[in-house]
Amino acid sequence: MYVYAYAPFGLEGIIIRVEADIRRGIPGIDISGLADGAVREARERVRAAIRNGGFTFPQDRILVNLAPAGIRKDGPELDLPIAFAILAAAGHIPPPEGLMVLGELELSGMLRPVRGVVAATAAGLASGLRGFIVPRENRAEADVLAPSRSAAVASLSEAIKALQYWHLHGVFPNAEALANDESLAFTKSAACTPTSLRADCRSPFSLSGGAVHPSGPETVHNEVGDFADVYGQDRYKRALEIAAAGGHNVLAFGPPGGGKTLLARRMPSIMPDLLPQEALDVRRLYSLAGSRDGAFWQNRSSLAPPFRSPHHGASLEGLLGGGKTVRPGEISLAHFGVLFMDEAPEFRSSLLKALREPLEDGVITIARAEGSVKLPAEFQLVLAANPCPCGRLGQDDGSGTSLCFCSDDEIHRHWQRLGSALLDRIELRVPVLPQPHSWVEAFAMPQYKDVQEKSARIAERVLRAIEIQRERFRGSSCRRNARMPPDLVERFCAIPALAIRELEAGIRNAGLSNRALQGIIKVARTIADLDGRTDINSEDLTEALAFRRSGDDPYDVLSRSNHCSVPGIPRI
Predict the structure, then answer these.
(1) Is residue 33 a contact partner of residue 72, using CB atoms and an 8 Å limit?
(2) Non-local CB neighbours of 295 within 8 Å, separated by 6+ positions
(3) Could you give the CA distance from residue 282 to residue 269 in angstroms, rounded to a whole number?
(4) What CA–CA distance (Å, rounded) separates 572 from 570?
(5) How far is CA 523 from the centre of its chain?
(6) By three-state DSSP, how is residue 541 classified?
(7) What's the pLDDT at 169?
(8) CA dist., res. 367 & res. 438, Å (int)
(9) In 184-217, which positions are buried (b, 16+ CB within 10 angstroms) versus exposed (e)?
């Protein structure tokens, strides 16, 4: 007889089989199977919780084995499975066959929440397990995949009641009956299988893609603001629109107060909802990270992509993932979403360099002695940076005198913190200068705000472009234009002969790498998608090249050619 549990390890994790043997000898508990820290300490927690729960703890020698024995186990989520294994071996409860049990025990017998419940239920369903008993605080995570197959309990005694009812009826009692200690009356719902859930017991994020009720765009706009709140900066807005449509990376640089951060934080307002399977992958990562109070759990029907903005003092493990027990970092929590790094040059150089491989591969590999862990990290990077240490490069006092006090060496040392290898992976670079005249006009003419394009309208164009890409890449692992491998670029990015000659002329003295040229073509493909065209024309390539020209040198912020109007966006 086994009690099934779960140990987080990478995205998939490991299903643990917990078994107990009771024999004559000096009373005590031995735990085998490479138990670490919190698992070894579970012996005393389990003993006290069983006694305080009203059960008799066996006065014999108890051996608990955690299989597979060759993998190190750490974490308090094995407390409840160990208690179940001991009680079942002693004959106090029926064997929990076909169930996965998760929970940390307090000495009083109450349960505390654990991490990784979404990943645990996914692994359990894939392995053919029929039900799950989890702490009450993890109810929302269990409901993502197994709403009719899980029991959310507050204590060891409630967990045992749920098990007894399952043993008799094959289903779990309702939460009210467990909490109020009423007769466990429950209407048996339609049976569900792990791979094909019926409509009446589906979760919005079931693997089979059940009914989805995504949050409307107005909900997202109210939370993050609207593009129309920021006056002017048409070129920067255009770059963010292209980035949202094609999954491209963005660098915005310029003096403080120009709107770099203000607009970047409004980027979610123009991004469409994730597909149900994509949202499920993101929720698994958030669950593995131990997050239960974020936006994903506050509103289960929301499919909004994640937007992460770590502080520049973040550690390597916090950004990339890791730790003694590997947890997802910010790049994985931004999976299928945006990683926004404000004040980018203030991040440690080693952190910025470490972003290069995940940006290319869409996955982060964390090497450990017991094995390598791979976590998905398909994010798009948005950087905001001051062009110099004092931040005033690009501003003058009105008479042409620069307000920047930095020396040329200080400016270049500041910019070199980003590194040319990281900059080469950023397709859209935008100098952003303050435009106070736009705000003055808004105060002088209230109708000025009415001509600012709202996020909802931009989001419509972005959604149409993404629908085109979903159809284009159907059946492949590629999601967005920015992720196209060379063979797909050759297949989907045909360029007319005239446009090729113009592109050659444009890049002749630009010093671009092969990667940069591929990036220009991918951006041109996205621009054509935004216009609803199947062919890339010269104007698409010209605009894509214009976005790629700046950013290698911080003095690019001084070039007035970088602040020209954007095709299709009228000047105010």
Answers:
(1) no
(2) 302, 304
(3) 19
(4) 6
(5) 24
(6) helix
(7) 87
(8) 51
(9) beeeeeeebebeebeeebbbbbbbeebebebeeb
Q: CA–CA separation, 421 vs 426, rounded Å?
A: 9
DSSP for 304-359, written as a single string: PPPEE---TT--HHHHHEETTTTEE-HHHHTTTSEEEETTGGGS-HHHHHHTHHHH
Burial class (CB in 10 A: 0-12, 13-18, 19+), 562: buried
Two tokens, residue 566: 């954007």
Q: How far apart are CA 250 and CA 265, in angstroms?
A: 13
Beta strands 111-112 and 104-105: pairing type?
A: antiparallel
- Provide the token pair at 193: 């299988």
CB hemisphere CA count around 12 (13 angstroms): 7
DSSP 246-260: HT--EEEE-STTSSH
- Name residues whose C-beta falls within 8 Å of residue 209's C-beta, 6 or more positions apart in sequence: 276, 277
pLDDT at 440: 66
Whether the bond between 68 and the residue before it is cis, its omega within 30 degrees of 0, is yes
Q: 18: helix, coil or strand?
A: strand
CB atoms near residue 176 (< 10 Å): 9
Instruction: Decide: 16 and 66 in contact? Cβ < 8 Å.
Output: yes
HEC sequence for 83-146: HHHHHHHCCCCCCCCCEEECCEECCCCEEECCCCHHHHHHHHHHCCCCEEEEEHHHHHHHHHHC
Task: Read off the pTM.
Answer: 0.85
Tokens standing for residue 458: 């931009």
Query: Could you tell me the CA-to-CA distances from 252 to 30, 263, 418, 506, 549 in Å, in that order?
Result: 58, 10, 13, 22, 13
Q: Each residue of 278-309: pLDDT tens digit? A: 998 998 999 898 876 544 544 545 688 999 99
Residue count (the chain):
572
CA proximity to 234, closest of 438, 396, 386, 380: 438
> What is the enclosing helix (H) or strand (E) of 215?
none
Indicate if the pLDDT at residue 172 is higher than 70. yes
